[in-house]
Automatic annotation (TrEMBL), chain A:
Membrane protein topology class: Multi-pass membrane protein
Encoding gene per record: nqrB
Keyword terms: Cell inner membrane, Cell membrane, Flavoprotein, FMN, Ion transport, Membrane, NAD, Phosphoprotein, Sodium, Sodium transport, Translocase, Transmembrane, Transmembrane helix, Transport, Ubiquinone
Catalysed conversion reaction: a ubiquinone + n Na(+)(in) + NADH + H(+) = a ubiquinol + n Na(+)(out) + NAD(+)
Class in the EC hierarchy, top level: translocase
InterPro entries in UniProt: NqrB (IPR010966), NqrB/RnfD (IPR004338)
TM helices/strands, residue ranges: 107-128, 143-167, 179-197, 250-273, 280-298, 318-336, 348-366, 372-392
Purpose: NQR complex catalyzes the reduction of ubiquinone-1 to ubiquinol by two successive reactions, coupled with the transport of Na(+) ions from the cytoplasm to the periplasm. NqrA to NqrE are probably involved in the second step, the conversion of ubisemiquinone to ubiquinol.
EC number per UniProt: 7.2.1.1
Source taxon at top rank: Bacteria
Protein name: Na(+)-translocating NADH-quinone reductase subunit B
UniProtKB/TrEMBL annotation, chain B:
Main function: NQR complex catalyzes the reduction of ubiquinone-1 to ubiquinol by two successive reactions, coupled with the transport of Na(+) ions from the cytoplasm to the periplasm. NqrA to NqrE are probably involved in the second step, the conversion of ubisemiquinone to ubiquinol.
Gene symbol of the encoding locus: nqrD
Enzyme class (EC, first level): translocase
Membrane topology: Multi-pass membrane protein
EC number: 7.2.1.1
Name used for this protein in its record: Na(+)-translocating NADH-quinone reductase subunit D
Pfam families referenced in this protein's UniProt entry, alphabetically: Rnf-Nqr (PF02508)
Domain of life from the UniProt record: Bacteria
Family to which this protein belongs: Belongs to the NqrDE/RnfAE family.
Localization (cell): Cell membrane; Endomembrane system
Reactions this protein catalyses: a ubiquinone + n Na(+)(in) + NADH + H(+) = a ubiquinol + n Na(+)(out) + NAD(+)
Subunit structure and binding partners: Composed of six subunits; NqrA, NqrB, NqrC, NqrD, NqrE and NqrF.
Keywords in alphabetical order: Cell inner membrane, Cell membrane, Ion transport, Membrane, NAD, Sodium, Sodium transport, Translocase, Transmembrane, Transmembrane helix, Transport, Ubiquinone
Length: 408, 214
């Protein structure tokens, strides 16, 4: 009797135990269970929800690994142990073991805490409510470490994950019923609860907060600071980075969001695996471009001068907006979340366009929230069902008209 | 309760839990969101509502047979307004700082749904003694929730209770702050009050099967 068979027998034997959902969650994650249909008129698909989730995680792995290198790279640049990797993706200054190890030991705990706490809550809820453990957290758990600053304290992440999973998802009925994207709920919670850890020039580079405390304590060291490009622009300073660096991702920012190139690759992978919606990705890029062009036009026609506090971000060339901040990451991995996005094709165009449009709007007009994409996606998550409703109603009306024309 | 008959006692006891004005009837939410960032403000607000609703209910109950039903809302408003002005003036005279914190919300007791709700639903149809008990019971039920919400919001949001730094000093890094704890700024924002009220409703409903609706 093989391992697979004995696992199945074990499951049969303990059918009425309370902890069974916890067991079968791990069981089905590793093995195809015996209860699948083998004949009859069922539609057979090879991928269940777990496979879908795994595909999204695969698309994010390059960003994660790049994030580890980048975390170390930003740190080493600041302490003067690395040279700037000039504009080339395969720069030997960037892909060093020293860079990777710093990032690895910093980011691995974030991943462990995110998965440990989040799945723990999923398991507890499944056992209390007596249903199978839902797979929804698999992707959320990987998204969360990618959208936080590298120096975030672990306990804050744990608190935010508890909040996001319980209030953002479980109270609505679990995976598939949530209104808001759970990963963004977690990030929004962190942002409003602990703003000093989520913005400013101290949190994006590993060790900056620690160094500041040492300096306050009397140590004779240089301060580490690394502002995100959006942070600098919002204060009217120069971006300070080459466009190529923005595209390749050699810039400070949340762990996974910096490399537009790798996000683009992940996005293509999702589109070809037919898991991410290309309509949403494309239309939200369009929305951002339209808003960016409007702002550029406003600057060009001289309505806004350099004395305005919006000048820095408004005069940013329109296509730079797509490269900086979390826009690319949010659009590809978070706006496309099939649960919280619009379901209808026409709805997806509207939804995506507004995500992009509002992202840039918030980015420019509210310096207190230098990254607008989080709030834009959350806002559009709320509106997604409304958009769908009107798209469906519009369709119904059109067909009624056609029917009338036919019968008349 | 030897003083009260069983029926009268229920008037006080029910609103505290199974018929709570905030968590069950979902009335008076606005003030629960606005003034629960500090425990002190919540306590003062609760006492003010206790005063207004207790006396208001008696006054309306005494007049219930002479108020023409067409203008009863206006009469009720005048009674509340008179009582609220008394509360407001007393606060301004004896607790000026606090009345500034509560600002417009003392005045807004007039529009607190609990008060008009109890006038309409109870005082217009019951005698003064029972109306008095009902007023006390409902405002206590309101106050209990307000104080629970304010307790958590002030403790987690500012690290203080009634202004006393119970968790240590965040700037000097004493108490729990020495271990890297930080105040949760989100707790001080109004959405979090709504979520805390929601959690209380959730806990209450899952403990009491009679409240579960399909």
């Amino acid at each position: 009797m093989g391992l697979k068979e004995s696992l199945h027998n074990f499951k049969e034997k303990n059918k009425d135990k309370k902890w069974l959902p916890a067991f079968s969650a791990i069981h089905t994650f590793l093995y195809l269970p015996n209860e699948t249909t083998h004949n009859g008129t069922h539609i057979k698909v090879a991928d269940d929800l777990k496979r879908t989730m795994n595909t999204v995680i695969m698309a994010m792995v390059p960003c994660l690994i790049f994030g580890m290198f980048n975390a170390g790279y930003q740190h080493n640049i600041q302490v003067g142990e690395a040279q700037a990797a000039a504009g080339s993706f395969f720069s030997s200054e960037f892909w060093t073991m020293a860079n990777f190890m710093i990032g690895f030991w910093k980011i691995l705990p974030l991943v462990i805490v995110s998965y440990g706490v989040g799945l723990g809550i999923e398991f507890i809820f499944a056992i209390i409510k007596g249903h199978e453990v839902e797979e929804g957290y698999l992707v959320t758990g990987m998204l969360v470490p990618l959208i936080v600053p590298v120096d975030i304290p672990l306990w804050m992440l744990a608190v935010a994950v508890i909040f996001g999973v319980v209030i953002g998802k479980e109270v609505f009925g679990g995976t598939g019923m949530n209104i808001l994207n759970p990963a963004l709920t977690i990030r929004a919670f962190l942002f409003f609860a602990y703003p000093t850890w989520m913005s400013g020039d101290k949190v994006w580079v590993e060790g900056a907060v620690e160094r500041t405390n040492e300096i306050v304590g009397g140590a004779n060291l240089d301060a580490i600071s690394g502002e995100t490009i959006l942070g600098s622009l919002a204060q009217g300073k120069e971006a300070g980075y080459e466009v190529m660096d923005m595209f390749l991702g050699f810039i400070p920012g949340s762990i996974g969001e910096t490399s537009t190139l790798l996000i683009l690759l992940g996005g293509l992978f999702l589109v070809f695996a037919k898991i991410g919606s290309w309509r949403i990705m494309l239309s939200s890029a369009l929305g951002a471009i339209v808003m960016g062009l409007i702002f550029n036009q406003v600057v060009d026609s001289g309505w806004i001068t350099e004395s305005s506090k919006f000048y820095g971000l408004m005069s940013t060339t329109w296509w730079h907006h797509l490269l900086i901040g979390g826009f690319a990451f949010g659009t590809v991995f978070m706006a496309t979340d099939p649960v919280t996005a619009s379901q209808t094709n026409k709805g997806k165009w509207i939804y995506g366009f507004l995500v992009g449009f509002i992202s840039i709007l918030i980015r420019v007009f509210n310096p207190a929230y230098p990254e607008g994409v989080m709030l834009a996606i959350l806002l559009m998550n709320v509106f997604a069902p409304t958009i769908d409703h009107y798209v469906v109603q519009g369709n119904v009306k059109q067909r009624m008209k056609r029917l009338k024309a036919k019968t008349a | 309760m030897g003083l009260l008959s069983k029926k009268d006692a229920a008037l006080i006891k029910d609103p505290l839990a199974d018929d709570n004005p905030i968590t069950i009837q979902v009335l008076g939410i606005c003030s629960a969101l606005a003034i629960t960032a500090e425990l002190e403000a919540a306590i003062v607000m609760s006492i003010s509502v206790l005063f207004v609703l207790g006396i208001g209910n008696v006054v309306i109950s005494l007049m219930r047979n002479i108020i023409p039903s067409k203008i009863r809302i206006i009469v009720q408003l005048i009674v509340v307004a008179a009582l609220v002005i008394i509360v407001d003036q007393v606060l301004k005279a004896f607790a000026y700082e606090l009345s500034k914190t509560l600002s417009v919300f003392v005045g807004l007791i007039i529009t607190n749904c609990i008060i008009m709700g109890r006038f309409e639903a109870f005082a217009l149809g019951n005698g003064p003694w029972r109306s008095f008990l009902d007023g006390i019971g409902n405002s206590l039920g309101y106050g209990v929730i307000l104080i629970i919400v304010a307790f958590f919001r002030e403790l987690l949001g500012a690290g203080t209770l009634l202004g006393i730094k119970v968790l240590g000093d965040p700037i000097e890094k004493t108490g729990v702050y020495a271990f890297g704890y930080e105040n949760n700024g989100f707790m001080l924002l109004a959405p979090m009050a709504l979520i805390v009220v929601g959690i209380i409703i959730w806990v209450q409903r899952s403990r009491n099967k009679a409240l579960i609706e399909d």
